[in-house]
Each structure stands twice: as C-alpha cells, then as structure tokens.
Queue: 4 jobs
Job 1
Amino acid sequence: MIVLDTNALMMPVESEVRLFEEVERLLTAPGEYLVPEAVRDELDKLADGAGTEATAAAVGRDLLDRCTLAETEADYADDAVVELAHRDDVTHAVTNDNPLKRRLLDAGIPVISLRGRNKLGITQP
C-alpha cells in the first residue's frame, strides 16, 4: 500500500503530474492507495476556497475514488500520514511536504516526491 498526502493528491493540477501513472511507472506493482480521513477533510476545506488551490483540492478529492480511506487516531493530516506509514502493509508514502518527507524518511519509509517539473522519484531512507 502507498499512503498519499494532501499535496500528493493536488499534484495533477499544481504540477501537471499524472499521479497514479507516475507511481505505477516507479513501482511495478504499487498495490492500493491509502488516504487518511484527515487528508480527505483537509481537501474538503481547501476545495471550499477559490483559485488554483481550490481547484487542485477539488481534483484531489475526486481522485479519492481510486483510494481506500483509513481512520487514524491523529486529526492532523501529516500526523495521520505518518501513523498510516507505520503499518506493516505500507511500502511508500507520496508527499512534496519537506518536513513530512523528513519525518517519513527518519521513520524508514521510502518517499515518492516531485523530481523535475512533472515527474516523480523515490527517496530511500
């Protein structure tokens, strides 16, 4: 399973990244995509705004149809991503958030993030 952060789901609009296709290019058998409910809630709040960020959040919310939502004890999206990343069935996390990326790498979780303009790459812990 691969855990997705809020900004990962917003990449298709913000960075013109074909999120699922890029992850599948990097990982031959990526498995399921896992999203904390806190990320869904954050997308909902952002989508209620205006401008590019709201559009990106609305697209990200639509992408949730391809993901499994998961409950966590954490209410804050970044904490929820880290919590889910510790599950035994999680192999990678996707985020462009540098502080979150550092937390995940420190926890031994490989992170998929933007490399270049619209391609993703993997950073190993």
Job 2
Amino acid sequence: MRVWRYGDDINTDRLFPGKYTYTCSTADEVKPHLLEDLDPAFASGVRPGDVLLVGRNFGCGSSREQPVLGLASVGVAAVVGRSFARIFYRAAINQGLLLVECPAAVDAWTEGDPVEVDVASSEVRVGNRSFPFPSLPPEILAIRESGGLLQYARAALAADRPRG
C-alpha cells in the first residue's frame, strides 16, 4: 500500500485533464490520464489498496465523472481528506469510491507512515495512531459494497423481481 499526498483545492481538471473529456469515457481509457497534470507518476505508480491523503475542497471544479471512475477502477482503497467538493463527493458515492473526511489523520501523516481506513470502526489509522471519523450511512456503505450505484440498483431490482 502506498500513500499519495496532495494539497488543497485540487480541481477535477488536475485529476483528469479536460482535453480528454469527450474522448475517454471507459475506465481503461481514463486510467492512463489520471492526475496527469498534477502528478505524472500517479497513473503508472498507483496500485490497488493505495490511499490518497488530500487537503480541503478536493475535487472542486467541473462535474465530470472520469476522475472518480478512474480512481475507483485502479483500486484506490480510500481518499482521506480535510473536505471534498460536493459534486465530487456524490460522484464518488455513485462509483463506490470511499471518501472519508478526517482532517486530523491528514495532518498527522508523515512520510513513511502506513495508513489504514477501517470503515467498521470509523477510524483512520496513521502509523500507530487512530483518528475517528463520522460513521458512514448504511446506504452509502451498501452502494460501496455493491461496487457503485448502478450495481446497487441492479441488485435491488433483481431482488424485487418475482421468481418463478
């Protein structure tokens, strides 16, 4: 697991360049361009289970879904931040990407500290310290566990269908 650290007001253009908005729509098309203008090493270096620690207002800017789609598809375990832009937060729910607001954990991290997010206990562990965060609503957890809103809705519809 690797920790990627970014600052305040990182907008969606820096997470996924706008010049690709109409030419990249699938996860495989998006992945090579993730954070291209912010951190050119990210797309080739990110691995499933990695964690992003971010500042205030992460994901501000346009409402494009590609940044969240890309982060979810490369297997980012969580984005732990001081705060998130509202539209980005909703897009993360839709894609099943875990966002956790925990400023104390972001502030406590130093290079080399492992970071673990425990949703069940609502805490972020940084090195040997633990930081609580507000429990996530069961609906958001169910959407995340389903792999996103579309998969969650499909499963709910299938469960409601009469069998026979």
Job 3
Amino acid sequence: MRDFRSLKVWEKSHAFALAVYRACESFPRTEQYGLTSQLQRAALSIPTNIAEGCGYDSDAQFVRFLDMALGSASECEYLLLFARELGYVDPATYTALHAAVVEIKRMLTGLLKTLRRREPRPPTP
C-alpha cells in the first residue's frame, strides 16, 4: 500500500481539482448540471483515482487506476478547451489550467512507464 499524499502527481492533481472547482464558480447557472458538473467530476477523478490505486498492493491495480486518472486528465483538457471557446473561462485561467493538466498528464505517463517496466513479463518460448 502506498501513501498517495507522498506522490507529487497527486499533489498537483489535487491542486488542479481545487482550481477547476474555483474556475467553475463563474460558469453560467444553466451549465450547473452540464459542463460544470462534467468538468468538476473529471477534475476530481484524477486525484481520486490516484488515491484509490494507492490502496492496492499490486502494481497492476495501481496501473489500472493511473490509467483512469490519465483518461480523466485528457477529458479535462478537452472540457477546458470547450469552456474557453464558449467564453466561460478567461484566457489567463485557461492557460494556467491547461498547463497544469498537461503537466499532470506528463507525470502520469512517466509514472505509468516506470511501473510497466517493473511488471513481470511472461517467459518467451
């Protein structure tokens, strides 16, 4: 079992989720059950999946949850672009959030590569 709080990628994704929640406060009320909800759920899913994956003893399970976190990060990247194009996110906020999610994706990808190298491989015939 790992301590998710010790992972830099969890720290960054936690801060990202908080920033997304704050940015969504300015979205129109008509988006409360649409884009706002979707973006908030995707952002919160990143650190949540990292934390959940840390609760398992096997690297294979951890990898599975990191893959889900990476998918949620990609979802956030698109939803932020969509929100920007609708004018719901100002350019400065978009730039900061986009940079953060790209960094999180890079960190997750690096961690996944490291873990996959450690996975036992079946013997070759």
Job 4
Amino acid sequence: MSENTLRILYVEDNPLVREITCELLSQPAREVLAVSSAEEALQVFKPGAFDVVLTDVSLPAMSGLDMARRILKLAPTTAIIIATGYVLHIDVSYMGPHVRVIEKPFDASQIESLLNELCSGPRSG
C-alpha cells in the first residue's frame, strides 16, 4: 500500500447503496473496505488503519453516531463523514474538527469535496 493511498472504511447496511457508493468511491490511490454494521466496523477499525470513516447514521443496532464516538476515542484525528437521508438535528461540531455530515443522496462531486477537505493535510491516526 502506497503512502499516498487514501484508506476508507465505509459502513452501510443497505447492500444496493453500499455497492453503488463503493463504485463512487473507487478510484486509483484509494482502498475502500465496506462493511454492513457499526459492530463489524469496530471489529476491523484500528488506529492508523483508515484515513476516513464514511458511515450511514441509521444502522441496525448501533448508530453511526455512536460508532463515530467510539472511533474518535480510539483515534481522535480520524476523519469521519456521517451520511444521513434526513435532516440531522444534531450539531456534530462537538465531535471535533474532523467530523462532517453529508445528506443522502449525495453525488460524486459532494463526496470528493468532503474527502479533499478532510484529507488534504498530513494523515495520522
């Protein structure tokens, strides 16, 4: 794996949305690992292993927000993008400067803009 490879952990319980979004995220110099639950994401997450966690807010057992909080306790500088299909009535700024919300459905330019914003500096876990 190259030092310039962007490593993305993608958490989405809907198989069709997961497949389409993985295609959207897949580009040279990127590695995308897609999982279907917050619990599965927490099993594979290790500090420094991923540059970005992109998660749906509504997951079957543990929510994307709760998972994000746990990840940030392990690795506070991890970039996290929380995707929601409805208006999120919570200000995620309390979670830190590396957390953003994107509304679904999002397009390639929206996700690329967020990835560039969050991952333009030096990467560390």
